[in-house]
Structure formats: structure tokens, C-alpha cells
Amino acid sequence: MDSFIIRFLICNLLISIIICILFAVNYLLRNVLTAGMKYRLWLLLPGFMMVPFLPHELTDLLLRFSWSRTLLHSASSASAPAAAAIDTAGIPGGSGWMNDFTLSVNRGIPSQLPVILWGIWAAGIAVMLLLTTASLYQLHTVKKSALPLKNRKIRQIYDRCLTELHIKKEIPIFSTAFLRSPILTGLFRPAVYLPISVISCFAAGDDAAGAAHCADETNGMTDMIRYIFLHELQHYRRRDNFVNFIVCPAGILYWFNPFVRLAFHAMRDDRETACDCAVLDLLKPEKYEDYGNTLLYFAGKTSSNPFPFSAGISSAMKQMRKRIINIAFYEKPSARTRRKSAAALICTAALLAGFLPFLSVRAGTGSAIRYQWNTAGKMVSDLDVSAYFGENQGTFVLYDIENDTWSIYSRNRATLRVSPDSTWKIYAALAGLEEGIITPDNSLITWDGSTYPFETWNQDQNLQTAMEYSVNWYFQEMEAQMGKKTIEQYLHDIGYGNEDTSADFSSFWLESSLKISPVEQVELLVRLYRNDFDIAPENINAVKDSIRIASDGSTTLYGKTGTGRVNGQDVNGWFIGYAEKTEGTYFFAVNISADAAATSMQDSNVKDRSASENYTGTREATGSRAAEIALSILNEKNIWREP
User: Fold this and answer.
1) CA atoms within 13 A of residue 420's CA, in its CB half-sphere
2) Which pLDDT band, with edges at 50, 70 and 90, does 195 fall under?
3) What pLDDT does residue 314 have?
4) Are 59 and 357 in contact (CB under 8 A)?
5) Closest CA to 310 of 185, 178, 176
6) What gap in Å lies between CA 498 and CA 372, rounded to an integer?
7) One of 315, 367, 422, 512 is an active-site residue; which one?
8) Rounded CA gap, 41 and 624, in Å?
9) What pLDDT is recorded for position 58?
10) 525/585 Cα distance (integer angstroms)
11) For 140-145, what is the mean pLDDT?
12) Catalytic status, residue 76
């Protein structure tokens, strides 16, 4: 969850850019967009704001159908990590290949910062909820005290307005003494609430403020009442109350973003202007002035609408001036203008749609680009091996090459791309062999004398020892000699994950820009096993020999662990490989994850691990832990047994 709040802040930067684009479009196309289209343009914004909170499955669809899919390759990369810090704490126990040596990557963000940000965000949401609840309580009081409208003449005007707007749904109308301006409220049961003061003025027929501008006072009040109803019922026709129920929660979640507040303010203003224009389209030009006088009448009654889930005819004085000017110069748009306006809206929506995948990737909890795995024609079944994972979230992928069948635990995570960490060394070795940096007969690389926290690293290495002890510097030296362009081309040729080396070239595979999913790991192992890469067979065999773990006579086990350590905490564990049996070969991948902040918190609370009843030894995600899970499942499936 700590990564969510950071990504959510990044998402807010993107949303702020989108808002600026919307303001710019509204200004540049002010002579093209009709009032209704200007308002509809703002309706795109709440949809963008909901994307970070959508489930992975829905955001995957956004990615699949977005024109920006090709651009997302680089945008989804994690920021380059700080220089790797040597950390000797928490080295997994065991020996040989199970001793998954790794170094910590520093993110540069204090572990307390996400907690502080979460607290501030939650506190702001709590305050906004209290204010909204208070407004809703006031609105509830108004509704509770309201009475069905009794004035027969006003009721007749209201019924005629319903007929004029072709509204068949029954929308009740009430009178209340607790309002100074009419409102429409209610999502599933919309209703109009009319102030008693308006009813009294109509009954008296001599209201100085509202009727003096009309030739006949009684007809003037009749027209005013009609204008009120037309405006409020236009809110119903345009589904503005439904929009309010979306905008209000979005405003609460994004309470800290000033661009969002500005956008919603502009959205409310354009909503009222759009309703004004919809009413004017029903009136004769000589009646425009009377409608404007009606707005001025209610501008003196109240400056704004205090309720979050309602819409009314009144607005602030600054906006009222804009509305009056719009009425004074209003001309009904031609059919051509409406078509141009609709085309401008569609083009803007299509342009902004390119931001959707960026928002889903940046702000979704634990989100990343997924592998778009085509399962058509594949035999895929679900496994229930959750008992082996304990406190860890993770996935297990098993492929039976002889029967061409897949068995998967947690399909959702099986296609989620994460950092490969040391499992990348299988393919780094293959690239080094192909480029001639090392050879099957001579893979020795001389140690440069640098001091590392693991004694096995502080000596000359060959491919066998470097793979067994997961010696980072050995593979980094090969990559440095090959160069970035060669590695990038190699990644593309074999189709390795997202093929992204945009981060620090010395550590792009260590909790950084390079990402791969467990399903892809298995597919690559199958291609390696079959040599679908069209690589020299002796080089393929050298890599296979380097990851050979053990044999019991009938089965040979191959595999590589990988551990991602961030700020001293093990957060990502891999074990990938295959078991070669006389009757067939089985390829597998296990990936587990642990939240760094939660792990740190548990470390501070559990001083004596053996004394803790709740501790199971599985809260951190390491390669050795992933290997234990994999071997247990393989044992259950009678694929591998410890010799």
C-alpha cells in the first residue's frame, strides 16, 4: 500500500495536466463548442479520476484499446534507483544454490513518508466527509419539512412544463420555507423544491423585483415560474444529479488537488450555462430578457447552492454576470455548428483517452503492465496451493510440455510483470556466451578487488560459481562489455518481458525498469530448453549446466532464485526452472511479494521470532522462500523429491 500513495500522487500530476488541456480546449474552441458541449467536455474528467481505483482487469482493457499502448513501454518504467547499498542483514539461510545472495536497492523515499502521506490524505477525506454529511443532513431537513405543492395554478404551469419537455416520469414538486432558491435533487426519486417566498409572490402578483420588468405583472410571475421549472427540469433531462453523485466522491478523494477544485467549479458554471441555453432554445428571442431577469431575481436571493447532490437556478454573482451576458448575445446554434461542436468533443475525448493507461499503471495498488497472454487454444487449469504461500501473496505456474497443459495458482498475478532480479542472470549468461565475452570452456572473469558483503563474491568467478552464488558483479561486467544497445537488441530478440533498460544500466534488472511475468518466465524457459532462440547449442548447454541443481537418477532439477531487496527489506522472491524426468519435462515459476513497509513494521514489533505466535517465517519475500514453496508443490505433484 505504500507504493499506492506515491503512484497516486504521480497520477494527480497527470490529472492536473488533463485539466489544463480541458481548460485550453474550452478557451481555444470557445467559438466552436456549444454551451452543452463545453459542459460535456468536463464530464470526461470524473472518468479519468476514477481510473486509479479500478480493478486490474478493467485497467487492462484500457491499456489494450488505447492508442498510447506503444508509448507506455517507457512510461511504465520505475524511476532509476539510487546507487546500490551493501546490506549484510537478513541473508537467507541454507547453502549452495538456496543461498540467494542479493544487494539492497535504495529508493530514496523514507519508509515513514508513505505513512505520513496516507495519514494526511485520510484526514482530509475525513474532514470532507464530515462537511458533506453536514450538507446532506441540511438537505434531509429541507426534504423532511417540505410539503406537496398545493397551489393549483403553479401546479398547472409545472405540468405544462413536463409536457413541453416530453418528460413522462413523475417528478413530484414540494414547497418549503427553508430554501430561498429552487432546486432539483434526488438520484432515483428526483423532486423539485420550490421556496414558499416564490409561491407567495406568485399569489400576490405584485413582486417588485421579479415582475416589474414585465408588461403585465400576473403574466410576468407566470413566465418566471415557467422559467424556473424549465431550468430545473433541464437538469433532470441532462442527468445532472447523476453527475453530481459521481463528482462529489471524486472531489472528496482528490480534496488536496487545487486543479480539481478549479475544474469542478468551472464544470458547475458550464452546467448552469448549458441549462440556460437549453431553456433559451425553447423560448422566443423576445423572451430572453425576461429569462435573464428571472436569474437576476434569484441572484439577489442567494449566492450559491449549498447542497452537494442538487442543482438549482441560482449561482454566484461572478458567474451570474457571465450567464446574463451569454443570454444577451445568445443565438441558437445551427445544425452545422452542432456537428462541428460534437466533432471537437469526440476528437478531444480520443486524444485524452491516451492518458488512461498511464493513470491505471501509475496509481493502481501494486499495479504494473501486464503480459497480454493469449490463452486461445491452450489448456489452462487452476490450482489451489494457497496453503504453501502462508502470508505471502504470490503465484505458481506449471507447464507440462508433453501434454501441453498449464496449471496456475492465481492467474491474476501470473501475468503481472515485476522485476526479474537474479533470474535475469540466466539470459545475461546466454547473451555473454553468444557475444563471446565468455565461452563454455573458459568463462572465468577476474575479480577486480572490490569488497562485497559475501565472501564467495570476493574472488575470481566462472559461470558455474557466479550462477550458484548469484554474483552480481560477474554479470554486470559482461553487460558492460556488451553495451546497452547489444543488451536492448538481445531483449527484443528473445522477447524478454517489457524489454526496458531505461533505468541505471548496471541495475536495470534489480527492482527497476525491466519487468517480466511468471507466465513469460515459463515460456522463455521452454524456448531456452528447445533452443528456439537459434543460439549455438554449446552455449545453450553451458547455461543449462550452470542452473543444474540436483538429480535423483530419474529426475534432474534446474532452477534459479531471485530476490528483490528494497531499502533493506526483501519484497520480491523468484524461483524459476524445470524438472526433466524420463516421462516428460515440467517447467515452473514461483513469484512471491511482500510489502516493504509492512515488513519493516513487523520487524519492529517481533523481536523474538520464535516467541511470536503469529509469525510463520514467511512475511518477507525471498528467492529461497519461493524455492521452498516450489519444491513443496512439485513434491505434492510427484514431479520432484529431495534425493
Assistant:
1) 29
2) confident
3) 55
4) yes
5) 185
6) 11
7) 422
8) 53
9) 52
10) 11
11) 89
12) no
Q: Under the phi-then-psi rule, with left for phi > 0, alpha for psi from -120 to 50, and beta for the rest, what region is 166?
A: left
Per this entry, what is the length of the chain? 643
402, 583 in Cβ contact below 8 A? yes
Residue 467 above 90 pLDDT?
Answer: yes
Residues above pLDDT 90, as percent of the chain: 47
Q: Scanning the structure block, which residue is given the C-alpha cell 542479493?
A: 102
Residues paired with residue 557 on neighbouring β-strands, in sequence order: 550, 579
Q: How many CB atoms lie within 10 A of CB 91?
A: 16
Residues 558 and 580 sit within 8 Å (Cβ to Cβ)? yes
CA distance 48 to 547: 46
**pLDDT for residue 85 is more than 50:** no
Of the candidates 165, 157, 168, 179, the one whose C-alpha atom is nearest the C-alpha of residue 281 is 165
Secondary structure, 3-state, 268-313: HHHHHHHHHHHHHCCCCHHHHHHHHHHHHHHHCCCCCCCCCCEEEC
d(C-alpha 366, C-alpha 9), whole Å: 14
Q: What is the C-alpha to C-alpha distance for residues 307 and 240, in angstroms, rounded to an integer?
A: 13
Partnered with residue 399 across adjacent β-strands are: 406, 587
Report the distance separating Cα 351 and Cα 108, nearest Å: 34
φ and ψ at residue 62, rounded to 5 degrees: -60, -40
Mean pLDDT over residues 451-467, rounded? 94
Cα–Cα dist 459/466, whole Å: 10
Nearest to 434 by CA among 516, 525, 503, 528: 528
Which residue type, as a one-letter code, is found at position 19? I
Alpha helix segments (H runs only) across 43-151: 44-50, 56-64, 72-75, 112-145
Model pLDDT for residues 318-330, shown as the tens digit of each residue: 777 888 888 888 8
Which contacts of 259-264 are long-range, i.e. CB under 8 A and separated by 24 or more positions?
259/15, 259/16, 259/19, 259/20, 260/15, 260/16, 260/19, 260/49, 262/19, 263/19, 263/22, 263/23, 263/42, 263/45
Residues 283-319 as b/e (b if ≥16 CB within 10 A, e otherwise) read beeeebebbbbbbebbbebbeebebbbbbbbbbbeeb
The pLDDT score that the predictor gives to residue 65 is 47
Max distance between CA atoms of the chain, in angstroms, equals: 107
How far apart CA 631 and CA 207 sit, in angstroms, is 87
* Mean pLDDT (whole number) for 59-81: 45
Give the closest residue to 372 by CA, choosing from 133, 55, 11, 57: 57
Kindly tell me if the per-residue pLDDT of 217 is higher than 70: no
pLDDT digits (tens, 9 = 90+) for 479-515: 999 999 999 999 999 999 999 998 888 889 998 889 9
For the segment 517-561, what is each residue's pLDDT rounded down to a tens digit?
999 999 999 999 999 998 999 999 999 999 999 998 889 999 999
Of 216 and 61, the one with more pLDDT:
61
Locate 324 and state its grid cell: 446574463
